[in-house]
Specification:
By secondary structure, the chain is of the alpha/beta class. Helix 5 runs antiparallel to helix 7.
């Protein structure tokens, strides 16, 4: 198992042993994402109806705790690929716009670059360079570098804020974000497709019965999460190890697919006895969420496909579409075409008010 080291690196012998324990395979992540979204679309409305309150769940002891007003450090992990770079530039643009607005508790910002060497955005975006996992260890699933990147960053960097927001390149701030955490209870977004209770057989491989009921594992990923730095320092090495163990288990790898690393964070947190405050208003995800409203982050991971009548054609390429995966080699054009009448406000806001403005202003 990979533990915490003073120099932020695992021992060579340990890496060799881990590498020998893994067989190599290549995953087409984009294909898996599209398949996963298609298979879940039919049950989405029912899952969403269960989340009618912005505060979905708060641990009982947290109700007595004082709300935190400490600043949080915004951190996202990234690669040096053009696809990652343009998203990071847009994310950082909106961070700077929202940081000092009333209601914001944002502190400093770091792009944790896990490509192993500096890139051409070092002067534009505050960046901390860390090493990727040794070649082959991620077995084509590049997201496994995320927990390892956080372990290295936490060990080596000077982070003055008491709390950390774990974010992603395809997040943009729609409203100023306060610190939603309360003391030792982080705040997280509940994902409709993370269902520990429906995967108990698999979860029990990593979270044994003596640890408690399976619903101690929260229905979350690692992002967005606002968490105390000291808690994340404890959880992150476990998160690395659980991710690698899950990837090495064929049944788990097949069942969790592209969200494996998200389940790994949820399990690692539960192993440390950490429960999250679940905030539905933390984030929205077009095209499923129709309005921005008072939500804080827009996550534009899903493709948005509509016919000329403004009707969603998800699973089929629409007459009008926006999908970030259409721009693997560079940013979207400055003159994004307008969606047809009837398209939800969340999509219009994403494209017109957010992406178009940032692409124009930072000269992507």
């Amino acid at each position: 198992m990979i533990g915490r080291k003073n120099n932020g690196r695992p021992s060579p012998m340990l890496l060799v042993l881990l590498a020998l324990g893994f067989f190599f395979a290549t995953y087409n992540l984009l294909t898996i994402i599209i398949h996963s979204k298609s298979s879940n679309s039919g049950s989405l409305a029912a899952d969403r109806s269960e989340l009618s309150d912005p505060l979905t769940r708060m641990p009982e002891e947290t109700r007595r705790a004082e709300s935190s007003n400490s600043k949080f450090h915004v951190a996202l992990t990234a690669t040096d690929a053009p696809y990652s770079q343009w998203q990071c530039r847009i994310m950082y643009y909106w961070y700077k716009k929202m940081k000092d607005m009333p209601g914001s508790d944002m502190g400093k910002f770091t792009r944790v670059l896990h490509s192993g060497s500096p890139d051409n955005l070092m002067e534009e975006i505050p960046t901390f360079v860390v090493d990727p996992l040794p070649q082959g260890l991620d077995r084509g699933y590049i997201v496994l570098n995320r927990p390892w990147a956080f372990v290295q960053w936490l060990e080596k960097a000077t982070i003055k804020e008491e709390y950390i927001l774990m974010a992603e390149p395809d997040h943009v701030f729609a409203n100023p974000l306060p610190n939603l955490a309360k003391g030792n209870h982080p705040a997280a977004f509940p994902f409709f497709y993370i269902k520990p209770d429906q995967n108990e057989k698999i979860i029990r491989k990593f979270y044994p019965e003596e640890k408690g009921p399976v619903n101690n594992v929260d229905p979350i990923g690692n992002s967005p999460v606002i968490i105390k730095k000291s808690l994340l320092e404890d959880i992150a090495p476990t998160w690395v190890n659980i991710s690698l163990r899950m990837k090495d288990d064929p049944e788990t790898d097949k069942a969790f697919g592209w969200v494996l690393e998200m389940y790994a964070y949820a399990v690692a947190s539960a192993l440390h006895g950490v429960r999250h405050i679940l905030r539905k208003d933390f984030m929205l995800q077009p095209p499923w969420d129709l309005e921005v409203g008072n939500k804080f982050i827009i996550h534009y991971t899903y493709g948005c496909d509509y016919n000329i009548k403004g009707e969603l054609t998800y699973g089929k390429i629409g007459e009008w579409r926006f999908d970030k995966r259409s721009y693997l080699s560079g940013p979207p054009p400055k003159n994004l075409s307008l969606p047809p009448p009837g398209v939800p406000e969340s999509v219009v806001s994403l494209l017109i008010s957010i992406l178009s403005e940032s692409i124009r202003e930072i000269n992507c």
